Amino acid sequence: MKSDLHSHLILRLLTLYRKPMGGNGVLYPILGFASCVAFIYMSFGDLKLSSLPKGLSLSFVERNGSHFILDGKPLYVNGWNSYWLMAHSMDENSRGRVSVMLQAGAKMGLTVCRTWAFNDGGYEALQISPGQFDERVFQTVLTRKNTITGIEYRNDPTIFAWELINEPRCMSDPSGDTLQEWIEEMTGFIKSIDKNHLLTIGLEGLYGPKSPKSAVNPGEWASTLGSDFVRNSNITNVDFTSVHIYPDHWFHDLGFEEKQRYVSKWVRSHIEDCDEELKKPVMFTEYGLSNQNKDFQASQREQFYRTILDIIYKSAKKKGSGVGALVWQFLVEGIEEYNDDFGLVPWETPSIHKLTIQQSCRLARIQGLNQQTGNLKQLCS
Ligand SMILES: *[C@@H]1O[C@H](CO)[C@@H](O)[C@H](O)[C@H]1NC(C)=O
Ligand SMILES: *[C@@H]1O[C@H](CO)[C@@H](O)[C@H](O)[C@H]1NC(C)=O
Questions:
Q1: Which end of the chain is more exposed for a tag (fewer CB within 10 A), N or C?
Q2: Catalytic residues
Q3: Ligand 1 pocket member 69 (CB < 6 A)
Q4: Is residue 132 in contact with ligand 1, taking CB distance under 6 Å?
Q5: Which atom of ligand 2 is nearest to the CA of 277?
Q6: Residue 238: nearest ligand to its CA?
Q7: By CB neighbour count within 10 A (0-12 exposed, 13-18 middle, 19+ buried), where does 262 fall?
Q8: Domain-wise residue ranges, the chain
Q9: Which homologous superfamily does the CATH classification assign to the domain defined by 7-380?
Q10: Is 57 exposed, middle or buried (0-12, 13-18, 19+ CB in 10 A)?
């Protein structure tokens, strides 16, 4: 794997792709939480993202109803977040860590990495100062050519999907109409340029005040933030739905077991929405357990991850809409400055390392992938 390519690939993904903003101040509160996120797709067995052999054509991931499809077969995702890839790809001295992280992910059978595609401060920053954005950075990345492969990003199948915005909220309009219109406009605009890639919003999964599911929310506050999982996700140009899972942020008085029960309910509820109403895949694009809890024990992380991964596996096995999850967040040594209270270096926690591989292998089995070849042979035998 050539780190050069990664740096370019990822570096170029960082330009935020958005229509220039109009004079409407309403977008600012939303953009306070904004990001543009790229999911990079890696196939099993072939760790090389660089120098694709001439003539080898990769397919784009597609959607059929509530499933992802790759080359005519269902695709299930075990993956991770490393939002810091971009920052490191720009620095020659630490560029190598990007390759180390992607290699490490591939070695655990992970196939999708979600990474920030914008810079908040520093080089080519999107947000120059709080609430102030650089219009120049709102320029097209979809038509940008990768300088090594010569492929425009909109035509690049190693990109799994685009995400519009991270955790959109619009508190100034709790009815949800403002955010709904913004998502409709932005998804339409992106699809007018890139019809190859899947598109998701980046929702936390909160239910709005009029949703019959609002009682499932972690608290009453959650329905006042201007977003609604089902309504927003039902927009035609949204290909799959996304949900985040942070029980420590949501509850301050619950014990670990109670949080676990809640997480289980939260995950099942969104799979049910997608199975029964939306008929779209659901990906749990961030899940994390904080080590800052007063009752935190390292073993709880494994239990928490397992609760989520088991539900995904069971859904996938019966061809349900639960198609994958991305842990928040995996790191490699040497980038502690990008850690938060959720991050870990997977090989430093053997139980989590093992669980991660187990999930990759059992999802590969459902997909009918040959476990006697390539990467899977070492991993899953
Ligand atoms: C897509 O879904 C339909 C209906 O469930 C099914 O008949 C068809 O075989 C699926 N196509 C692929 C490529 O999986
Ligand atoms: C989703 O949108 C369709 C029309 O596009 C509508 O018929 C359906 O009721 C909507 N579903 C929900 C759950 O809002």
A1: C
A2: 167, 286
A3: yes
A4: no
A5: 13
A6: 2
A7: middle
A8: 7-380
A9: Glycosidases (3.20.20.80)
A10: exposed
- Looking at ligand 1, which residue's alpha carbon is closest to its atom 8? 64
| Ligand 1 atom closest to 64 (CA) | 1
Residue 51 Cβ contacting ligand 1 at under 6 Å: no
β-bridge mates for residue 79, sequence order? 112, 326
Distances (CA, A) of 358 to 81, 290, 298: 18, 23, 19
Residue 276, ligand 2, Cβ within 6 A: no
What tokens does 84 get?
Answer: 């810091």
In ligand 1, the atom with minimum distance to the C-alpha of 72 is 13
pTM of the model as a whole: 0.86
Element (H, E) at 317: helix 298-317
State pLDDT tens for residues 173-195: 999 999 999 999 989 988 998 99
Cα dihedral 23/24/26/30 (nearest 10): -50
pLDDT in tens, 200-236: 999 999 999 999 999 999 999 999 999 999 999 999 9
Helix axes 298-317, 350-366, angle to 10 degrees: 0
CA 234–ligand 1 middle distance (angstroms): 20
